[in-house]
Amino acid sequence: MKRSLPPSLIVRGHPDFDALTALATEITARAGGTLELHQSFPAMLRRCIDDVIMTPKTGRRAYEELEKTEKTYIGTRVEIELRALLRLPRGRLDTEILGRDVDIKNTMGSNWMIPTEALDQPCLLVAADEARARCYLGLIVARPAYLTQGKNKDGKGSISAAGFGNILWLMCDHAYPANFWRGQDPHVVTTIFSQSTGNTRMASLFRQIQACPIARDVVEAVAQQKDFMRRIRSDKGRGTRDLLEKEGILLLSGQYDSQLIKALGLPHCRGSEFISCTPRGALQRRMAEQAGFQLPELS
Question: What is the DSSP string of 246-289?
Protein backbone atom coordinates (compact mmCIF):
# COMPACT_ATOMS: atom_id res chain seq x y z
CA MET A 1 0.00 0.00 0.00
CA LYS A 2 1.07 3.60 -0.57
CA ARG A 3 3.24 4.94 2.24
CA SER A 4 1.62 8.39 2.11
CA LEU A 5 -2.16 8.61 2.13
CA PRO A 6 -4.23 11.81 2.19
CA PRO A 7 -6.34 12.53 5.27
CA SER A 8 -9.90 11.30 4.99
CA LEU A 9 -12.43 13.86 3.79
CA ILE A 10 -15.31 11.85 5.24
CA VAL A 11 -16.61 14.36 7.78
CA ARG A 12 -20.02 15.90 8.32
CA GLY A 13 -21.10 17.67 5.16
CA HIS A 14 -19.41 15.14 2.84
CA PRO A 15 -22.03 13.51 0.58
CA ASP A 16 -20.96 10.00 1.67
CA PHE A 17 -20.64 10.71 5.39
CA ASP A 18 -23.99 9.34 6.57
CA ALA A 19 -23.87 6.17 4.47
CA LEU A 20 -20.26 5.28 5.27
CA THR A 21 -20.40 6.04 9.00
CA ALA A 22 -23.53 3.89 9.32
CA LEU A 23 -21.79 1.01 7.55
CA ALA A 24 -18.64 1.47 9.63
CA THR A 25 -20.65 1.41 12.85
CA GLU A 26 -22.43 -1.77 11.79
CA ILE A 27 -19.18 -3.51 10.78
CA THR A 28 -17.52 -2.60 14.07
CA ALA A 29 -20.51 -3.84 16.06
CA ARG A 30 -20.60 -7.11 14.13
CA ALA A 31 -16.90 -7.63 14.89
CA GLY A 32 -17.57 -7.23 18.61
CA GLY A 33 -16.24 -3.69 18.98
CA THR A 34 -13.20 -1.73 17.86
CA LEU A 35 -10.70 -3.66 19.99
CA GLU A 36 -11.94 -7.03 18.76
CA LEU A 37 -11.93 -5.83 15.14
CA HIS A 38 -8.33 -4.67 15.53
CA GLN A 39 -7.38 -8.13 16.78
CA SER A 40 -9.46 -10.46 14.63
CA PHE A 41 -9.12 -8.71 11.26
CA PRO A 42 -5.28 -8.73 11.13
CA ALA A 43 -5.21 -12.37 12.29
CA MET A 44 -7.69 -13.26 9.55
CA LEU A 45 -5.48 -11.68 6.89
CA ARG A 46 -2.43 -13.61 8.08
CA ARG A 47 -4.41 -16.84 7.96
CA CYS A 48 -5.75 -16.19 4.45
CA ILE A 49 -2.26 -15.55 3.07
CA ASP A 50 -0.56 -18.43 4.87
CA ASP A 51 -3.28 -20.90 3.88
CA VAL A 52 -2.54 -20.18 0.22
CA ILE A 53 1.25 -20.25 0.64
CA MET A 54 0.84 -23.69 2.32
CA THR A 55 4.42 -23.92 3.59
CA PRO A 56 4.01 -27.39 5.20
CA LYS A 57 2.93 -28.91 1.87
CA THR A 58 4.78 -26.80 -0.69
CA GLY A 59 7.93 -25.61 1.05
CA ARG A 60 7.15 -22.07 -0.10
CA ARG A 61 7.58 -19.38 2.50
CA ALA A 62 6.57 -16.09 0.89
CA TYR A 63 3.74 -14.44 -1.03
CA GLU A 64 6.12 -13.71 -3.92
CA GLU A 65 6.49 -17.45 -4.56
CA LEU A 66 2.80 -17.90 -5.39
CA GLU A 67 1.42 -18.44 -8.88
CA LYS A 68 -0.64 -15.61 -10.36
CA THR A 69 -3.89 -17.54 -9.92
CA GLU A 70 -3.06 -18.22 -6.27
CA LYS A 71 -2.46 -14.52 -5.62
CA THR A 72 -5.89 -13.84 -7.10
CA TYR A 73 -7.42 -16.54 -4.91
CA ILE A 74 -6.25 -14.73 -1.76
CA GLY A 75 -8.85 -12.08 -2.60
CA THR A 76 -11.54 -14.76 -2.74
CA ARG A 77 -10.40 -16.17 0.60
CA VAL A 78 -10.47 -12.73 2.19
CA GLU A 79 -14.01 -12.15 0.91
CA ILE A 80 -15.21 -15.47 2.33
CA GLU A 81 -13.39 -15.10 5.65
CA LEU A 82 -14.49 -11.48 6.12
CA ARG A 83 -18.14 -12.39 5.58
CA ALA A 84 -17.75 -15.18 8.14
CA LEU A 85 -15.95 -12.90 10.62
CA LEU A 86 -18.70 -10.28 10.43
CA ARG A 87 -21.55 -12.80 9.98
CA LEU A 88 -22.61 -11.12 6.75
CA PRO A 89 -24.86 -12.68 4.08
CA ARG A 90 -24.13 -12.93 0.39
CA GLY A 91 -25.58 -10.10 -1.66
CA ARG A 92 -26.08 -9.01 -5.26
CA LEU A 93 -22.45 -7.92 -5.13
CA ASP A 94 -20.26 -9.63 -2.50
CA THR A 95 -22.38 -8.95 0.58
CA GLU A 96 -25.19 -6.89 2.02
CA ILE A 97 -24.92 -4.55 5.01
CA LEU A 98 -27.87 -2.58 6.41
CA GLY A 99 -29.83 -3.49 3.31
CA ARG A 100 -27.18 -2.09 0.94
CA ASP A 101 -25.21 -4.09 -1.59
CA VAL A 102 -21.50 -3.86 -0.79
CA ASP A 103 -18.57 -5.02 -2.90
CA ILE A 104 -15.50 -6.41 -1.09
CA LYS A 105 -12.19 -5.55 -2.74
CA ASN A 106 -8.83 -6.89 -1.65
CA THR A 107 -5.33 -5.94 -2.75
CA MET A 108 -1.79 -6.97 -1.86
CA GLY A 109 -0.59 -3.97 -3.85
CA SER A 110 -1.25 -0.24 -3.72
CA ASN A 111 -4.78 0.07 -5.17
CA TRP A 112 -8.05 -1.68 -5.86
CA MET A 113 -9.75 -2.41 -9.19
CA ILE A 114 -13.41 -1.39 -9.07
CA PRO A 115 -15.78 -3.23 -11.46
CA THR A 116 -18.52 -1.41 -13.34
CA GLU A 117 -21.27 -3.14 -11.36
CA ALA A 118 -19.91 -1.56 -8.16
CA LEU A 119 -20.05 2.03 -9.46
CA ASP A 120 -21.89 4.33 -7.04
CA GLN A 121 -22.09 1.45 -4.54
CA PRO A 122 -20.25 1.12 -1.21
CA CYS A 123 -17.05 -0.92 -1.37
CA LEU A 124 -15.32 -2.49 1.62
CA LEU A 125 -11.61 -2.10 0.90
CA VAL A 126 -9.03 -4.52 2.30
CA ALA A 127 -5.27 -4.25 1.81
CA ALA A 128 -2.28 -6.17 3.15
CA ASP A 129 1.30 -4.93 2.82
CA GLU A 130 3.40 -8.07 3.35
CA ALA A 131 6.74 -6.27 3.18
CA ARG A 132 5.86 -4.01 6.12
CA ALA A 133 3.23 -6.23 7.80
CA ARG A 134 0.66 -3.41 7.76
CA CYS A 135 -3.03 -3.74 6.94
CA TYR A 136 -5.92 -1.50 5.92
CA LEU A 137 -9.71 -1.69 6.12
CA GLY A 138 -11.81 1.10 4.67
CA LEU A 139 -15.08 2.07 3.03
CA ILE A 140 -15.70 4.12 -0.08
CA VAL A 141 -18.67 4.85 -2.32
CA ALA A 142 -17.21 4.02 -5.72
CA ARG A 143 -18.28 7.18 -7.50
CA PRO A 144 -16.81 7.63 -11.01
CA ALA A 145 -15.33 10.96 -9.88
CA TYR A 146 -13.15 9.07 -7.36
CA LEU A 147 -11.72 6.71 -9.98
CA THR A 148 -9.03 7.01 -12.63
CA GLN A 149 -10.10 7.67 -16.19
CA GLY A 150 -8.05 4.78 -17.58
CA LYS A 151 -9.67 1.36 -17.44
CA ASN A 152 -8.30 -2.15 -17.88
CA LYS A 153 -9.59 -4.60 -20.49
CA ASP A 154 -12.45 -5.60 -18.16
CA GLY A 155 -13.55 -1.99 -17.78
CA LYS A 156 -12.34 -1.77 -14.17
CA GLY A 157 -10.88 1.46 -12.83
CA SER A 158 -8.68 2.10 -9.82
CA ILE A 159 -9.06 4.76 -7.14
CA SER A 160 -7.39 8.01 -8.15
CA ALA A 161 -4.81 9.81 -6.01
CA ALA A 162 -7.44 12.39 -5.05
CA GLY A 163 -10.07 9.64 -4.67
CA PHE A 164 -8.15 8.12 -1.73
CA GLY A 165 -9.32 11.08 0.34
CA ASN A 166 -12.90 9.79 0.06
CA ILE A 167 -12.13 6.60 1.99
CA LEU A 168 -13.41 6.25 5.54
CA TRP A 169 -10.77 4.16 7.33
CA LEU A 170 -11.70 1.65 10.00
CA MET A 171 -8.04 0.59 10.14
CA CYS A 172 -5.21 2.43 8.40
CA ASP A 173 -1.55 1.37 8.44
CA HIS A 174 -2.32 -1.06 11.25
CA ALA A 175 0.10 -3.83 12.20
CA TYR A 176 -0.78 -7.43 11.39
CA PRO A 177 1.17 -10.64 12.12
CA ALA A 178 4.30 -10.62 9.99
CA ASN A 179 5.39 -13.49 7.81
CA PHE A 180 7.74 -15.28 10.21
CA TRP A 181 10.35 -16.12 7.57
CA ARG A 182 10.71 -12.52 6.33
CA GLY A 183 12.23 -11.53 9.63
CA GLN A 184 14.89 -14.24 9.65
CA ASP A 185 18.40 -14.25 8.23
CA PRO A 186 18.26 -16.04 4.83
CA HIS A 187 21.33 -18.08 5.77
CA VAL A 188 19.59 -19.28 8.94
CA VAL A 189 16.47 -20.24 6.96
CA THR A 190 18.58 -22.18 4.46
CA THR A 191 20.34 -24.01 7.28
CA ILE A 192 17.02 -25.01 8.88
CA PHE A 193 15.45 -26.37 5.71
CA SER A 194 18.61 -28.13 4.54
CA GLN A 195 18.22 -30.76 7.26
CA SER A 196 17.02 -34.13 6.03
CA THR A 197 14.40 -35.10 8.64
CA GLY A 198 11.58 -33.42 10.49
CA ASN A 199 13.29 -33.84 13.85
CA THR A 200 16.59 -32.35 12.71
CA ARG A 201 14.82 -29.46 10.96
CA MET A 202 12.87 -28.65 14.12
CA ALA A 203 16.00 -28.96 16.25
CA SER A 204 17.78 -26.60 13.86
CA LEU A 205 14.85 -24.15 14.04
CA PHE A 206 15.00 -23.88 17.84
CA ARG A 207 18.80 -24.01 17.92
CA GLN A 208 19.18 -21.19 15.39
CA ILE A 209 16.30 -18.99 16.58
CA GLN A 210 16.28 -18.63 20.35
CA ALA A 211 14.40 -16.32 22.75
CA CYS A 212 11.74 -15.75 20.08
CA PRO A 213 8.15 -17.09 20.35
CA ILE A 214 7.47 -19.47 17.46
CA ALA A 215 3.93 -20.29 16.43
CA ARG A 216 2.57 -23.79 15.98
CA ASP A 217 2.07 -23.29 12.22
CA VAL A 218 5.77 -22.40 11.81
CA VAL A 219 6.71 -25.62 13.60
CA GLU A 220 4.37 -27.57 11.32
CA ALA A 221 5.92 -25.92 8.26
CA VAL A 222 9.41 -26.93 9.36
CA ALA A 223 8.47 -30.45 10.44
CA GLN A 224 6.54 -31.28 7.25
CA GLN A 225 5.05 -34.21 9.14
CA LYS A 226 1.52 -35.14 10.17
CA ASP A 227 2.36 -35.88 13.82
CA PHE A 228 4.72 -32.94 14.28
CA MET A 229 3.54 -32.26 17.84
CA ARG A 230 4.77 -35.68 18.93
CA ARG A 231 8.21 -34.87 17.53
CA ILE A 232 8.48 -31.59 19.42
CA ARG A 233 7.90 -33.26 22.79
CA SER A 234 10.24 -35.58 24.66
CA ASP A 235 10.04 -38.91 22.84
CA LYS A 236 12.22 -41.54 24.52
CA GLY A 237 15.33 -39.52 23.81
CA ARG A 238 14.49 -39.06 20.12
CA GLY A 239 12.22 -35.99 20.17
CA THR A 240 13.28 -32.47 19.33
CA ARG A 241 13.14 -31.49 23.00
CA ASP A 242 15.45 -34.40 23.86
CA LEU A 243 17.96 -33.54 21.13
CA LEU A 244 18.19 -29.92 22.25
CA GLU A 245 18.35 -30.76 25.94
CA LYS A 246 21.53 -32.77 25.29
CA GLU A 247 23.02 -29.58 23.84
CA GLY A 248 22.00 -27.51 26.86
CA ILE A 249 19.08 -25.82 25.05
CA LEU A 250 15.61 -25.61 26.59
CA LEU A 251 12.56 -26.02 24.35
CA LEU A 252 9.58 -24.58 26.21
CA SER A 253 5.84 -24.59 25.62
CA GLY A 254 3.75 -21.49 26.23
CA GLN A 255 1.00 -23.77 27.53
CA TYR A 256 2.98 -25.94 29.93
CA ASP A 257 6.12 -23.94 30.77
CA SER A 258 4.72 -20.43 31.22
CA GLN A 259 6.14 -20.00 34.73
CA LEU A 260 9.65 -21.03 33.68
CA ILE A 261 9.44 -18.81 30.59
CA LYS A 262 8.59 -15.85 32.82
CA ALA A 263 11.26 -16.73 35.39
CA LEU A 264 13.93 -16.88 32.69
CA GLY A 265 12.94 -13.40 31.49
CA LEU A 266 11.90 -14.63 28.03
CA PRO A 267 9.26 -12.92 25.87
CA HIS A 268 5.65 -13.84 26.62
CA CYS A 269 4.47 -16.97 24.80
CA ARG A 270 0.86 -17.70 23.96
CA GLY A 271 -0.41 -21.19 24.74
CA SER A 272 0.08 -22.33 21.16
CA GLU A 273 3.64 -20.99 20.88
CA PHE A 274 7.08 -22.39 21.71
CA ILE A 275 10.35 -20.76 22.64
CA SER A 276 13.91 -21.98 23.14
CA CYS A 277 16.86 -20.64 25.07
CA THR A 278 20.26 -21.58 26.44
CA PRO A 279 20.30 -20.97 30.21
CA ARG A 280 22.95 -18.49 31.27
CA GLY A 281 24.53 -18.67 34.69
CA ALA A 282 24.02 -20.95 37.66
CA LEU A 283 20.62 -19.51 38.65
CA GLN A 284 19.00 -20.12 35.25
CA ARG A 285 20.47 -23.62 35.05
CA ARG A 286 19.15 -24.39 38.53
CA MET A 287 15.64 -23.17 37.58
CA ALA A 288 15.69 -25.38 34.48
CA GLU A 289 16.84 -28.42 36.45
CA GLN A 290 14.15 -27.82 39.08
CA ALA A 291 11.63 -27.85 36.22
CA GLY A 292 12.84 -31.33 35.21
CA PHE A 293 15.47 -30.59 32.56
CA GLN A 294 18.69 -32.61 32.70
CA LEU A 295 21.32 -30.32 31.23
CA PRO A 296 24.85 -31.48 30.35
CA GLU A 297 27.71 -30.44 32.57
CA LEU A 298 29.44 -27.24 31.51
CA SER A 299 32.85 -27.88 30.03
Answer: HTT-EEEETTT-HHHHHHTTPPP--TTEEEEE---HHHHHHHHH
